[in-house]
């Protein structure tokens, strides 16, 4: 006897055109993030194809990380992913070097981040 396969109905407020767009990261944000990081090393141009490659690789990484975090959550018999699940997932997929900086950024109140950023931009006086 064959098992019947059913699919979940698509939400009524999401069209086929919109559902593809949900998968993409905003290119303007991706471009800004890349340029901000690369500006530390001097002026550099980023081609559209490079932005698309960064965007797609980021999307794939997010899917991979969320799947790993979801597995951890399910193993704990929970239905809600928390930050600890994400930290453990980063370790499981061999990105443990991100855990410390991520923990630190989540512990700092958002209002303090702009002050920290401005302080980091100031030249340091060693004398």
UniProtKB/TrEMBL annotation:
<dbReference type="Pfam" id="PF00808">
    <property type="entry name" value="CBFD_NFYB_HMF"/>
</dbReference>
<dbReference type="InterPro" id="IPR009072">
    <property type="entry name" value="Histone-fold"/>
</dbReference>
<feature type="region of interest" description="Disordered">
    <location>
        <begin position="1"/>
        <end position="22"/>
    </location>
</feature>
<dbReference type="GO" id="GO:0031490">
    <property type="term" value="F:chromatin DNA binding"/>
</dbReference>
<protein>
    <recommendedName>
        <fullName>Transcription factor CBF/NF-Y/archaeal histone domain-containing protein</fullName>
    </recommendedName>
</protein>
<dbReference type="GO" id="GO:0008623">
    <property type="term" value="C:CHRAC"/>
</dbReference>
<dbReference type="GO" id="GO:0006974">
    <property type="term" value="P:DNA damage response"/>
</dbReference>
<dbReference type="InterPro" id="IPR003958">
    <property type="entry name" value="CBFA_NFYB_domain"/>
</dbReference>
<feature type="compositionally biased region" description="Basic and acidic residues">
    <location>
        <begin position="13"/>
        <end position="22"/>
    </location>
</feature>
<dbReference type="GO" id="GO:0031507">
    <property type="term" value="P:heterochromatin formation"/>
</dbReference>
<dbReference type="InterPro" id="IPR051377">
    <property type="entry name" value="DNA_Pol-Epsilon_Subunit"/>
</dbReference>
<dbReference type="GO" id="GO:0046982">
    <property type="term" value="F:protein heterodimerization activity"/>
</dbReference>
<feature type="domain" description="Transcription factor CBF/NF-Y/archaeal histone">
    <location>
        <begin position="24"/>
        <end position="90"/>
    </location>
</feature>
<dbReference type="GO" id="GO:0008622">
    <property type="term" value="C:epsilon DNA polymerase complex"/>
</dbReference>
<dbReference type="GO" id="GO:0006272">
    <property type="term" value="P:leading strand elongation"/>
</dbReference>
<keyword id="KW-0539">Nucleus</keyword>
